[in-house]
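From the pipeline queue, job 12 of 40. The input is one protein chain; the requested action is below.

Action: predict structure.
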Amino acid sequence: MALAAVTLKEIERIFEILDRLGISREAVVIPLRPARPGSARILPNGKLEILVEGERSLDEWLPELEVTIRTLLGIEDGPN
């Protein structure tokens, strides 16, 4: 089922990843309109923009998001 809007529920799940990676929530922009496909990128102002996946389930997409964030920011995969 397609996601119509990004809500606090989705944002809180993303915050779990950011907290685990030690990324300040102030350094992140999450637009409230879902994207197809979801993605992450570094904006010219240095903030991390996360476009939430609108077609696939959040449970399926979040692990991919974490890998993308780690790659963008050069964060090595640590012990879980």
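Job complete. The mean pLDDT is 94.
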